[in-house]
Automatic annotation (TrEMBL):
InterPro entries: UCP030820. This is DUF934 domain-containing protein. It comes from Parasphingopyxis marina. It holds the Pfam family DUF934.
Amino acid sequence: MADILRFRDDEAHEEPAVTLDAFLDQSNATAVRLEDGEDARKLIPYLERLALIEIGFSNFGDGRGYSAARILREHGYTGELRAQGDVLVDQIAFMRRCGFDSLAPEKPLDPVDAENALARWDEVYQKAADDRQPIWAKRHA
């Protein structure tokens, strides 16, 4: 696995993530991994004690991880949310808007390309899990 790109100021979580089933069975871990298609809502009762939720992307074209991230953020998760797997530089801005704050891509991403991807659009058109105000709200404020 390539280096982890983080967009947070706090320390990286070092504990390995356990599977969702293992977490639900033992429920003393502070890091969990969701695979494609697993229901993020199962973690809602435990969000306050989780330091890391890793969401697997086995295929860049599978958008379920974006939905899982947004569900978790909308339910108040404030810990590290990491996209892991088939993560491409073209997806970074959208992942960030859905609430991801770290990436662990299978193939290394150029940090300069990553920063450029995050800075590409000054304005956004819809609300998301981040705190950016949509342009329509600015127009009608």
